[in-house]
Specification:
By secondary structure, this protein is mostly beta strands. The chain has four helices and 16 strands. β10 (249-255) and β11 form a beta hairpin. Residues 1-34 form the signal peptide.
């Protein structure tokens, strides 16, 4: 006898099970075939402000450890080459080393700056990052008529140098809290290798910021800095504020030293607009003594720059930056290096001015080339 099979002869329960099994398999197949690989470009792991701290490579990843950086910032800078030049500007000087005081003036025909900075991680763990930084800066002046003052003659073609090293610690405490600590030592002045005396040229700086990571796009903190941003060494409060509002706009600030509005044109092009406050402090030995016999001076400079900056990827790990704007000089004074500090002042003690200079405003432009972590390296790091 031949046996035949027909689904219509199955019990009702078996037929229902068969139908449900088929529908389940069909739905799984449809869901699998519906998956699409996203095509939206992904920004590289962002970096902090162009300053020397607030660096981390965990941004945009798990919120297990908080960091000061936010999604949308550019890539972290490892090696930076920078060249900057100002147009001609007037300088007026009141020479307090003479009796009575004498006023002189001329034009600065050259004021150029260049620096090289490098950063390397000594320890790179999600809950602790230790970064070593080194830098070499050089600034030069030329005057239309340096014979107007012994001070101009001493600055003419003199290389004002800065050799520095710093150690920065970024410590995520938990998914919300973090802090940054940084110490820095620099040798500032007109020294040469044969006559360098560390004690005469050493300048020290320090920084501490405690902050909160509210989301991958918003981080802020408060703290204090000991440094030369306002000319002489002083302690002042700081507020860090990094926020990305959408895929195109953001703010990066370390107030009061710098504030920038960021525009993300695309994943490889960023535009910034804002201001920076910079302070320089040099110890110099004069080729010729002043009228009062002084042979050493401290030159303190504080300037404010309104700037517009473009950063663009050239190839994977190689980027460049173009910056232009207007420099307003707040102070450029010379003081007695050997004189005693006078007590008082909002930002700490001050010395009597030997030469009181007033520098005119001037447009400036700069070119920067910097290396960043290769994209392949960032992908490997993110996959861990």
């Amino acid at each position: 006898m031949m046996l035949t099979f027909s689904p219509f002869r199955l019990p009702a329960r078996s037929a229902v099970r068969l139908v449900l099994t088929g529908l389940t398999g069909l739905s799984l197949h449809v869901a699998a075939t519906a998956q699409v690989t996203p095509t939206t470009p992904v920004y590289p792991p962002p970096a902090p402000l162009p300053g020397d701290t607030a660096r981390a490579d965990q941004v945009g990843r798990s919120q297990e450890f908080a960091t000061p950086s936010v999604v949308g910032q550019g890539p972290s800078k490892g090696l930076v080459f920078h060249l900057e030049s100002l147009s001609d500007f007037a300088v007026k000087s009141k020479l307090n080393d003479q009796t009575p005081s004498k006023d002189v003036s001329t034009t600065v025909t050259k004021n150029r700056r260049a620096f090289i900075k490098a950063y390397a991680p000594l320890w790179n763990h999600p809950h602790l990052k230790v970064i070593l930084g080194v830098n070499y800066d050089r600034e030069e002046f030329q005057f239309k008529d340096p014979s107007q003052s012994v001070f101009y003659q001493n600055l003419e073609d003199k290389g004002l140098k800065v050799i520095g090293t710093q150690l920065a610690v970024i410590r995520p405490i938990d998914e919300v809290h973090w802090f940054i600590a940084r110490v820095k030592g620099e040798l500032n002045g007109d020294y040469t290798s044969s006559e360098l005396n560390v004690k005469d040229y050493l300048k020290t700086q320090a920084e501490f910021i405690y902050g909160w990571k509210r989301s991958p796009t918003f981080s802020w903190g408060v703290g204090g800095q000991l440094g030369y941003t306002f000319g002489r060494q002083s302690i002042y409060p700081v507020i860090l504020y990094n926020r990305t509002f959408n895929q195109h706009w953001g703010v990066e600030a370390l107030f009061p030293a710098r504030v920038s509005v960021r525009r993300n044109l695309n994943p490889r092009t960023l535009l910034f607009g804002g201001y920076t406050v910079d302070g320089m402090n040099y110890n110099i030995k004069l080729r010729q003594p002043l009228a009062n016999g002084l042979q050493t001076l401290i030159v303190r400079e504080t300037e404010v720059k309104a700037r517009l900056r473009l950063e663009r990827e050239i190839y994977d790990f190689l980027w460049f930056g173009l910056e232009g704007g207007y420099r307003y000089n707040y102070s450029f004074n010379s003081l007695d290096q050997a004189g005693n500090e006078a007590k008082g002042g909002l930002f700490g003690p001050s010395r009597p001015k030997i030469i009181d200079n007033t520098l005119g405003g001037a447009p400036y432009a700069s070119l920067e080339v910097f290396l960043v972590p290769p994209r392949k390296f960032l992908k490997k790091t993110a996959s861990k």
